[in-house]
Structure formats: structure tokens, C-alpha cells
Amino acid sequence: MKMSGKMSFRRPPRLTEWLIKRLYPDGGAYSTLGDLAEEFQAQAEEKGPFRARLWYRLQLLQSFPYLLRDVLFWRMSMFRNYLKVALRLMRKHEVYTFINITGLAVSMACSLLIVFWVRDETSFDKFNKNLKEIYRVTCLGKNLHGFSSPAPFAPAVAAEIPEVIEAARVARNPRLVFRQGERAFYEDNGITTDAALFRMFSFPLIKGDTGTALAGPLGIVISETLARKYFGHQDPMGKTLDVEGRYALTVGGVMADIPRNSHFRFDYAVSVKFAEGADFWGMKWGDFNFMTYIMTSGPRDETVLAGKLNQLAIDHKCPQIVYKQLEFFVQGLERIYLNPLGPYDIPLGNKRDVHLFSLVALFISLIAGINFINLATARAEKRAKEVGLRKVIGADRRQLIGQFFGESSLMTLLALVLAKIAMPYFNALTGKSLAFRVFDPGILMSLASIAVFVGVLAGAFPSLYLSSFQPAQVLKGSAPFVSLLKGKRAGWIKRGALRRVLVVGQFAVSIALIVATFVVAQQMTFIRQKSWSHERDKILYIPFKENLGPRYDLVRSELLKNPAIVAVAAKDSLPDKINNNTNGVAWEGKTSDQNDLYMETIRVDVHYFETMGMPIVAGRGFSEDFPGDLGTAFVLNETAVRKTGLKDPVGKWFSLYGRKGVVVGVVKDTYFQTFRQAVRAQAYYPYENMTTDVSGIDVAFIQVGGDPAGKAFKEALAHIEKVWKSVNTMTPFEFHFLDQALDAQYQNETRQGRLFGIFAFLAVFISCLGLFGLASFTAEQKTKEIGIRKTLGASIPDIVILLSGDFSKAVLAANLISWPLAWHAMNGWLRGFAYRTSISPWIFLGAGLAALAISWLTVALQTLKSARTNPVDALHFE
Amino acid sequence: MKFISRSEEFALLAVLYLQEEAYGVAIRNRLRKMTGQSWAFGAVFVTLNRLEKKKMLESKLADPTPRRGGKSKRIYRLTAEGLEELARIRRIQQAAWKSVAVSNPQR
Question: Do B42 and A59 touch (CB under 8 A)?
Fold first, then answer.
């Protein structure tokens, strides 16, 4: 190459030249660069080097769109080719394709749904603008892990602690009857609070003003829904609502319905001043009846804040704090929903569920990813030829990786469609109302991360692995592909060990999920069976809110006129609620260290135990035959007897609030509240005088005989309604089945059980898909071996055992791994229940056997087919 | 039936005109003269490349010159297909133009 010309050669700008060279990757660039250089010389001579350089660079810019179009055109046509190859492969290997697509798409759809759910669970309260500044005051003591504080606490905090700028009290109202004209309903979901609440939380008022709405004792703020319910299209502002026939509340504000993802929700709010007047709760420093929310100026250290609260309570001589029975803590708003304090707390979120299901999503993705890897490497030998050919034609590694990634993205898309279809069912199952919003940034992020996760797991490994083949060796066909790998890794993979390890992992996860399903189901059955009464599905209850005390006897005798109605009784609180929990009890032989024994005291009428089917285990129940019972008799439950240490309790003296009486009987422990807590010590005592005890009756229980689906039962229901209407003019008629009300407490667990079942099924299904695919490839690979064995005299069972032995071993090994893990995890779950079943070893054995049986069934078809082929067909190529 | 684009047609004509001197710079100059507007380098390059892929042009490398920084010229030549395509386009165009009357200021 000669460089010495008469004219000096001016070098064009190097960077630009380099860029142009990169952009024209083929041979043409060489002469094009030459063309450009020539033009550059001419320009430089004519207009000077500066202009020439400028021109040169401009050329690059001007050419860019054309180049880009050209590059894209060829990229596109390559992509078309990939797509074509992918589709051809899919058609050629239908089984493989089906397995891969179904497995991967189902698992991704699963994970996606779980991501939606987890996102929803973690989104609670995030809509609040003051999220970081709001705290809830909680308290912790020996007998109580609670969230309540005294009524005067919040105002004192707001006034005396400088960094607290707002403080609001919240108490759940009892169920009240609201009436407006002809419309009367029970309202369950109301709170008593301060106006400050609306300044702290982002609960916007549509009408009215936060300052004035709750200023007076008779103001009320109602939700949009409630406004429509009582006032239709009229403007509710300034109108009055009748409550319990005793108060007329003036609507001072209408708020937007509380968002679904707020940890506490309410339909109406009344002022604390109203509660003071209505005397719902004690308002002294010793009465822990309100939740307190505080808002600080900027986020604060929680321990420091709690220390100040405790000091303030001591300054105000709050007895529980002074005597160190309780200590205040604070909980940031962000953490409230997922960290409920005991079963009675409002937020129903559960951090463990969130973790658990995230883990399940991960597991299921893992299983499907393993399938993808396994099948892809199993097929690698075949695929290797395509890769080799592509490489010979000039594909570089990046392109190949791109191709394989493309294949996995295609499946991601499919999974998305599947998830969309499954969404409504998932919603029904979880009791959520999640929307399929893909274009939410958070969802897009998690979607991308799922795609990348599965893509990396399922796509990258095979693609990196496959694209590393040396084309010459693969195409020659002489070298089996595994020998292309060097060193230890080769031996490991050659023996199929990697694949086997992955299968073991897959089945370990599946078995663990099966075990979890069984344990959850067993626990649920256990709870149902333990639920005391065999008559529970025949017991109805009617909330008895109104002043029906004087008419109770009339109602009762009217009801009993229907032949199907067996018994009627009354209690002072709803079946799953307890009105009174006190340590104001004493008994014969009470010692001083029993002073902190709290008992639930329950007022009932004399027919209660027989109506509810609660067996008396010692002594007798209350009875009309013993008129002396009224005011003096007590019935304890078994736990109470155990806790008090009373021996032969019948006939011993017992007192409640200093009123002395006699224990007449012991009733079997009953389970009205959630099984997460042990039954507590309970003392029952009868109403002294039903006609004068006006406020004490909250619920009437009615036991109806016969088949709940039968005609007599229906007639009885009609009769109940008629009687109710004849004596009652104010409150709406409603009744509930006791068993349904009690089951509702286990909604979460039931759901969890069902979800586990479904996930376990999917996990097993996907694992089996993978196993099926592997089995068919093994069989294919071993075609010749089988042929030779058969010629040498192997029988069909021999061959089947040969082929399925490997998988059986894998499944057995999986059992060994998953049993201890599952046992540990499920024991942890059961520990959340006060009454729990023991995990029977049969569950493990059953899960293991089920997995083994399913895997055999999966493989059987394939192995039988290859075992029965005529050896001539397998060998005639040689 | 597919047609080549206008720019491809011009490029073919330029190559035909330049004969043995048909390489990048010369073609670009010719195109500028022919159309009265400047052509970007990339536009010329892409068009020539595409025509070569369509087998209407063929090329060979000629001697390098110092003025080109020691890089070869790529000399383009029409193939039989290229010639045929030009003839076809011309035929079609003439026929098409004949059948309509478009006011032409030059006439």
C-alpha cells in the first residue's frame, strides 16, 4: 500500500471514521470509507480543513437514518427467521412444546397473580399523604397485647408533646339501628372519633367541613354509600338521622367511601362528645377503650416517641402505666396492616401470608424453570445442529442468545394472557378485587422481573450453554455434545447428574406443598369437629338490639308455638363476642397470686345451655325449676375450674363484683371465638329479671329441629319472621345461622387451605409435565439400548423398571429432603392456633407415595411404549 | 409486480452513464447533477447496496489511490437484470405518461 503521493494525505476525523466503519459492518465499508476520504480531500483543498471535517461529520449524521433503516431491515428479517424456526420446532415437537409452554405459562401466570396479590397486600394505607408521620399507639402488658388507650390520652398528647401536631381517638361503635323516614338498618361499621382524624388521614370530605362536622355532640359524618342508602338523591347535609330511637344526629359531612386498602374502614363517624353523652364507654384514665393515632411533624424515632408517651401517662397518673401493668409503644402507619396485634385487631393482613405466598410463587417459577432447563439441555443434542449451522452461516453468539431469549419472551407473553383469564377466579378465591392493570409501573416492574427471572433461569442457561458449541465438532456429528465441555463439569453433566438434581429439587418442592395442603385441611377438619355442638347448623340467632326485654317472654312463647322450633334462649352478646372480661371475681379458696386471673362473664337466660346444646359435665345447668338461681347461681366452664383450682366446684361459693353466689354446675368448654386463642375462663350467670333487664339482651338463639333443608324448617323461618314483626316495629328483621357465623372466623384459613391445594396441584402438575418430557427423551435416547437389551432377552417389565428406576430414585430422594422442611414449616403454621392437630406421619407418607405414584403414571405411558417397540425398528439403522 | 424505487432508478442511470468510472464519489456527483440536489453519502451507499443485493448491480474493487487514504475504489456495473429493469420501467412509464394529459409548464 503506497502512501507517498505528491499531495499530502489529510486524515479524516478518526472517531467519525471509526463510527462509520462500525456501522457498515460488511466489506462495502472499505471502499465507502475510501469514497468518503476522497471527497474529504477535495473539500479540504477547496474550503479548508475545518469545513471539510465538519462536512465529514455531517455525512455520518445524514447517513444515519438510512443506515438505521438498513440495519433494522436485516434484523427484522433475522427475527422473522427465528420466529419461523421457533414455530417449526414447536410444530415438530408438539409434546415438548406443549409441556414447555403449559408449564412455564401456568407457573408464570401463578406467580403473576401472586405478585398482584402481594402488591395489593403491601399497598395498604399507602394512599395517605401523611403516611410517614402517622403512628398508632399500642400497649403491651402481661395480660394484654393491645391497641387501646384511655380517652383523655389523645388530647393530652396533642397538647403536651410538641412534636405531635395532631392526635385522634377511634373506637368501634356497637351495632346501632339507624332510621331515616321509612328506611331503617343496622349499622355495624361506625366509629367514634375526633375531627382531627380527617386532618390526619386522607379521607376526603365531599361535602361539609372537617372543622365543623364533628364539632358538636350530635354531628355525624357519613360515607357516600350511606348517604345514598338513607337519603337517595337528596342532599343529606343538615338532615337528621335517628339512632336507636334515642338520638337525632345531624349530617355535618359526607366523605368519600374509605378506600378498600385502608387498614380501618368505616361507614360513619360520630364525635367523641356523642359517646360521652351516650355513655358507651368509660372515659377515665384507667379505661382503655380507644385507639389513639398521632401525627408528628416529620418522621420520628419510635422508641423516643413511645418514651414520651409513657412519661405523659405517668404524669397524668394513668394507673396501668404507673403500676407498670402496661407500657405504650407506637406503630408506624405503614406497618399496621401487616402486623396486627392479636386476633381482635382491625387490620386483617398477615405478613406471614405475604411471605409464604411470595415463596410459593418463587417455588412454582423455580419448578417451571427447571423444566425448561431440563428439557432444553435434554434436547440440546438436536438443537446443537441448528446452532452449529447458524454459526457456520455466521451468526455470532449474541444473536443466538437473543434467539433463545426471544423464545422465552414469547412464553412470558402467553403467561400474561393466561393470567388475565385466570384473574376473576383468583379474585373469587382470595376474596380480593384485584384489577388486571398491567400498565401500572410497579406491576410492569415485577412483570419485567418475572420475565427476566424465568428468562435467565429458563432461557439463559440453555442458550449460553447451547451457543457455546463449537460448530465444526457438532456438525461432524462424531462428537457427542457433552464431550465438548471440558473438565469436571463435563463428567457431571454427562452422567445426567445435573438433570437429576433438578428433578429432585422439583419434586421436593411439590411434596412439601402437598404436605402443606394436607396439614391445612387436617387442621380445618379438626377445628370443625372440635366445634362443640352437633346441632350447630340448626341454630339461628336474631340480633335482639331493641328494648325487647319486657316482651322477651312473649316472643319466646310465640316462637315455641311452631312445632319445629325446639328451644329459644337469650344471651347478652353476639355469639362470637364477649361483653365483659374482668378480674372482679372471687371464689372459695382464691389465693393472692390469682388476682390477675381475668374471666369472661356472660349473662344468659335459663334455657341457654339446652338451646345451644352445650353439655353440662358436672352439677346442673340453670333451670326454671330453681327460681332461686336468679341472682345467685353461676355456671363455670372447664377452663375456669382448672384456672381457679376449684376441686368439686359444685356447691362452692363464687362472686362477681362482690355479689356472692354458688356454683351450680360446670359446662363443657365451648369454642365461639377463633381457635387461634385458647378458650378462656368463663362464668355464666342468669338474668335476674327478664322484664326489667332491658339493656342486657343482645341476641336470641333459636334451635330449630329437623332437616335444615326441609319444609318444616322453612315454615319455622317464616314463623319466626312473623312473630318478630308482630312484636317489633323498629328494627329490621335479620337472622343468621350459627355455623356460618362461626365458620366466617376461619375464612382466611379456609382460603389459605384452598389456595395451597391449588398451588400444590399446579406444582405437581408442572413437575409431572417436566418428568414426562424427560422420560420421553430418555426413552428416545435409549432406543438402541432398549433394542439390544430386548434382543438379548430382556422382558417388558425389565425395561420399564430400567427406565422408571431413575425417576423413582429421584422422587424418593426428594421425599427425604422435603419431609423435614415441610414438617418444620407446618409446625410453625400450626403454632398460630391454640387448638391444633398433630401432624400425622401418614401425611408425609401419603404425600411421598402420591408423588411416586403420579411420577410412575407419568412415565409409565412413555416407558411402556418404548419397551414394547420391536427391537428391529430400533436397530435396523445400524 | 414489484418496481424499484425512484432513487434506485436514478442510481442505475448514474452507473450506466459513468461506465468504467462508476464508483461512490463519482456516482454521488452524477446524482447531484442529475437531480439538482445533494445526496447524503449514506443514501447513495444504501441504494447501491440494495441494488447489488437485488442483483441489478455488480461490483469489483479497483486499485487504491493515496487520495483515498490507501483504500480501494468499488466500481459498479449494471447486470443484465439491471438493464432489463431500466428498460421495463421506461416502457411502462412512457406508456403511462402517454395515456394522460398533465399540464406541463415547459411545453
Answer: yes
Domain boundary among A695, A730, A765: A730
Q: Minimal Cα distance from B62: which residue of A?
A: A31
ipTM of model: 0.72
Amino acid A473: pLDDT:
57
CB contacts < 8 A, A to B, total 92
Chosen from A32, A64, A72, A74 to mutate, greatest number of chain B CBs within 10 A: A32
- Verify whether the Cβ–Cβ distance B42 to A11 is below 8 Å: no
Alpha carbons A142 and A327: distance in angstroms, whole number: 10
- Same domain, residue pair A184 and A293: yes
Q: What is the pLDDT of residues A233-290, one digit of tens each?
A: 888 888 888 887 788 888 988 998 888 888 888 999 988 888 777 766 777 787 777 8
Contact between A66 and B45 using a beta-carbon 8 Å cutoff: yes
- Asked if residue A192 and residue A109 are part of one domain, the reply reads no
Min Cα separation A33/chain B (Å):
7
Residues A485 and A557 reside in one and the same domain: no
Q: Which residues of A touch B67 (CB under 8 A)?
A: 5, 7, 9, 37-38, 41
User: What band does A27 get if pLDDT is binned at 50, 70 and 90?
Assistant: very low
Helix segments in A431-440, DSSP class H: none
Task: Identify the weakest region by mean pLDDT among A67-81, A137-151, A447-461, A826-840.
Answer: A447-461
- Domain containing A310: what range? 134-348
> Do the domain assignments include residue A520?
no
Rounded Cα distance between A367 and A359, Å, is: 12
Adjacent-strand bridge partners of A296 = A164
Model-level pTM? 0.62
Give the domain-ending residue among A301, A329, A348.
A348
Q: Are residues A336 and A354 in the same domain?
A: no
User: In angstroms, rounded to a whole number, what is the distance separating the alpha carbons of residues A374 and A380?
Assistant: 10
For residue A65, list chain B residues with Cβ-Cβ distance below 8 A: 42
Does the pLDDT value for residue A858 go beyond 50?
A: yes
Give how many domains chain A has, as a whole number: 4
Judge whether A700 lies within some domain: yes
Q: What is the DSSP letter of A8?
A: P
What mean pLDDT, rounded, does chain B reach? 84
With CB atoms and an 8 Å threshold, state whether A9 touches B41.
no
Q: Which residue has 447517513 as its cell numbers?
A: A63
Q: Which of A24, A34, A59 sits opposite B40 (nearest CB)?
A: A59
- Taking CB atoms and an 8 Å limit, are A62 and B41 in contact across chains? yes
Q: Given the C-alpha cell 396479590, which residue does it identify?
A: A117
- In this complex, the residue of B25, B46, B61 whose CB is nearest that of residue A35 is B25
Higher pLDDT among residues A624 and A304, named by residue: A304
Q: Residues A309, A393: one domain? A: no
Are the C-beta atoms of residues A467 and A387 closer than 8 Å to each other? yes
The model's confidence at residue A765, banded by pLDDT at 50, 70 and 90, is: confident
Q: Among residues of chain A, what percentage have pLDDT more than 90?
A: 2
Domain ranges in chain B? 6-98
Closest CA of chain B from A78, distance in Å? 16
Whether residue A291 sits in one domain with residue A159: yes
- Mean pLDDT across A571-590: 76
Written as one letter, the residue type at A128 is N
A306/A383 same-domain check:
no
The reply to whether A163 and A237 lie within a common domain is yes
- Of chain A, the percentage scoring pLDDT greater than 70 comes to 77
Question: A663 in a domain, yes or no?
Answer: yes
Closest Cβ–Cβ partner in A11, A31, A69 for B71: A31
CATH number attached to the domain at B6-98: 1.10.10.10
Tell me if A861 is assigned to some domain.
Answer: no
**What is the β-pairing status of strands A268-271 and A145-146?**
unpaired
| Residue A791 backbone phi and psi in degrees, to 5 | -60, -35
Residue for grid cell 445400524: A878
Which residues in A have their CB inside 8 Å of a CB on B?
Answer: 1-5, 7, 9, 11-12, 24, 28, 30-39, 41, 59, 62-67, 69-70
Residues 6+ positions from A717 with CB-CB distance below 8 Å: A540, A704, A735
Tell me which chain A residues have a C-beta less than 8 angstroms from the C-beta of B74.
Answer: 28, 31-32, 34-35
Q: Phi, psi at residue B65, to the nearest 5°?
A: -125, 155
Q: Per the CB < 8 Å rule, is A2 touching B70?
A: yes
